[in-house]
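Key result, reporting period 2: structure in, sequence out.
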């Protein structure tokens, strides 16, 4: 009976999605109307002269396109406890801290019930499509999820990362149950105050329930790789705990200890089995299916800055499929992965037209068209001209603008996406990169994506030596004359100077943007510098962000560290132990 209800539910979700995406334009119009009606009394909207109008044309005419910086004073007043409606009709009671790993410090964004509901809708939608291809039944999930510290703002609002706000919400647990993907770890572990202790206990819970685990997941793929790298180091200690039924003394928090004590019983057979399984592996290949024989797939956001971790994740996963989770941000969700079968690197996200009102700034044509229309070339004075969700064109790249149920209106998210196709009449987006992450000295422009491709290319050289790039970042050094690119690498083990020198040359040659190549040739950009970091440096970077209130669940290594992100730059620079300059040009 229960099974039947689940199948019915899943089909209903797909049916609703199909109906909605066949009528994207109207659904968008209705969604905008609903957002503006619900929040019509908010000071921000009142001041813009909409006078009750809710149609897209009036909305675009009255409401400016903004950045987080523009809304910051309004959000700050909410954070400080102002009681009048500022950005939303209903008062905001919770604040999300976005990861801030790109800006260097967390940003505050409003969180409310409507945002929670859209989160669940995204989860349900991708689950429904995923479940058709990869059904899970009455299983458990090994989820590497962690909460951030939840604090109170000066004005008494709850503040935590968006994922923490979601995990704490009672609806989340219910939804996970309905999706038959309940986390195998107790709440005390998920919400434990120290993420290293939580990680250890997640691993232990996974091993205790190894037969029942049907999926391994986390919000971002980075956390899964991080977890299994840790397992490589602590597996013997885990086996001792399982054998004796006593938790290591390293776990110190009483709430975590007592929750784990309820699960842990002496089990020498299981400890021996794990030892045998791990001893039989060659270089940890296929670790996940070996430990969790019934795992159906591995799930988490795997695109964008997470692509770097895929190689390692595939190594651990053996033949278990990797499926990327959905596309969204602390500010709101955007699209669901409804094609779980495609290779991870080609994942697209179908926009859900009822979870927000979406616009897109065309990145290539916009300025050229306007120059043509206006006959002048004063590019800097031009306003971006966004198009609507149904006006985007296949093959084009855009910056995403969001209008949400949580008080953000025409908000530039800063992400670049490419339209790969349409599902009915809603676009399917490929995540390209963050727009503001740019390496540039003069006329060169290299994005996060260009950097990643260069690193991938150069990393092949150390792969021949059986080593890998654990993580990487970059910086533009303008203190030298001319300025030059600096790439930071943390690598897994010893690599000879000759090979690293060649990696440095390869990185330099791999930035193929015409501005870079021509500038390098005339020495308007100096030789690229590769700095090798001590092992554990990126762990220090992670710790730094955790100290600022970020959560491991949402962590993204900053790929380009500017001078304003002084602390991170200092951590990187203090941990350099070898430096190479390119001789490629
Ligand atoms: P946060 O600031 O922690 O809320 O993270 C949100 C950001 O993470 C987005 O603006 C994207 O840059 C990135 N992100 C979220 N989902 C995905 C995805 N599916 N693929 C690539 N990047 C993503």
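The corresponding designed sequence is given below.
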């Amino acid at each position: 009976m229960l099974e039947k209800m689940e199948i019915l539910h899943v089909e209903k979700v797909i049916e609703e999605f199909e109906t909605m995406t066949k009528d994207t334009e109207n659904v968008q119009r209705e969604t905008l109307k609903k957002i503006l009606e619900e929040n019509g009394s908010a000071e921000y909207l009142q001041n813009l002269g909409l006078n009750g109008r809710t149609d897209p044309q009036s909305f675009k005419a009255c409401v400016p396109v903004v950045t987080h910086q523009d809304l910051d004073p309004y959000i700050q007043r909410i954070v400080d406890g102002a009681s009048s409606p500022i950005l939303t009709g209903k008062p905001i009671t919770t604040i999300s801290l976005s990861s801030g790993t790109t800006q260097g410090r967390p940003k505050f964004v409003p969180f409310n019930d409507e945002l929670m509901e859209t989160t669940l809708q995204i989860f349900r939608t991708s689950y429904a499509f995923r479940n058709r291809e990869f059904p899970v039944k009455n299983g458990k999930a090994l989820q590497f999820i962690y909460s951030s510290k939840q604090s109170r703002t000066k004005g008494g609002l709850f503040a935590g990362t968006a994922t923490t706000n979601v995990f704490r919400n009672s609806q989340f647990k219910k939804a996970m149950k309905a999706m038959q993907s309940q986390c195998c770890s107790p709440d005390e572990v998920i919400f434990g105050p120290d993420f290293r202790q939580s990680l250890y206990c997640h691993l232990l819970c996974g091993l205790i329930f190894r037969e029942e685990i049907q999926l391994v997941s986390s919000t971002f793929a980075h956390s899964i790789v991080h977890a299994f790298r840790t397992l490589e180091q602590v597996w013997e200690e885990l086996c001792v705990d399982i054998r004796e039924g006593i938790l290591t003394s390293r776990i110190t928090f009483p709430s975590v200890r007592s929750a784990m004590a309820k699960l842990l019983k002496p089990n020498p057979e299981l400890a021996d089995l794990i030892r045998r399984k791990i001893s039989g592996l060659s270089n940890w290949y296929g670790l996940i299916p070996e430990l969790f024989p019934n795992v159906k797939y591995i799930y988490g956001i795997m695109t964008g800055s997470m692509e770097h971790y895929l190689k390692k994740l595939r190594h651990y996963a053996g033949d278990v499929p990797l499926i990327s989770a959905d596309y969204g941000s602390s500010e709101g969700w955007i699209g669901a992965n409804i094609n779980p079968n495609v290779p991870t690197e080609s994942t697209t996200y179908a926009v859900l037209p009822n979870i927000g009102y979406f616009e897109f700034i065309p990145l290539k044509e916009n300025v050229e068209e306007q120059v043509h229309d206006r006959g002048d070339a004063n590019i800097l004075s031009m306003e971006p001209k966004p198009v609507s969700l149904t006006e985007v064109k296949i093959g084009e790249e855009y910056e995403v603008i969001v209008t949400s149920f949580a008080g953000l209106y025409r908000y530039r998210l800063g992400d670049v996406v490419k339209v790969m196709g349409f599902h009915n009449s809603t676009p399917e987006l490929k995540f390209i990169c963050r727009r503001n992450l740019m390496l540039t000295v003069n006329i060169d422009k290299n994005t996060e994506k260009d950097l990643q491709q260069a690193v991938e290319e150069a990393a092949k050289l150390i792969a021949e030596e059986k080593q890998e790039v654990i993580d990487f970042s970059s910086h533009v050094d303008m203190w030298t004359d001319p300025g030059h690119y600096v790439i930071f690498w943390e690598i897994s083990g010893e690599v000879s100077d000759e090979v690293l020198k060649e990696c440095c040359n390869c990185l330099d040659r791999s930035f193929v943007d015409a501005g870079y190549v021509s500038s390098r040739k005339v020495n308007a950009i100096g030789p690229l510098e590769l700095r090798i970091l001590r092992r554990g440096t990126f762990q220090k970077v992670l710790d730094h962000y955790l100290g600022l209130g970020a959560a491991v669940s949402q962590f993204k290594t900053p790929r380009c560290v500017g001078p304003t992100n002084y602390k991170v730059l200092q951590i990187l620079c203090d941990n350099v132990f070898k430096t190479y300059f390119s001789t490629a040009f």
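Residues 1-8, 366-381 have pLDDT under 50 and may be disordered. The two ends are 69 Å apart (CA to CA). This case is discussed further under Risks and Mitigation.
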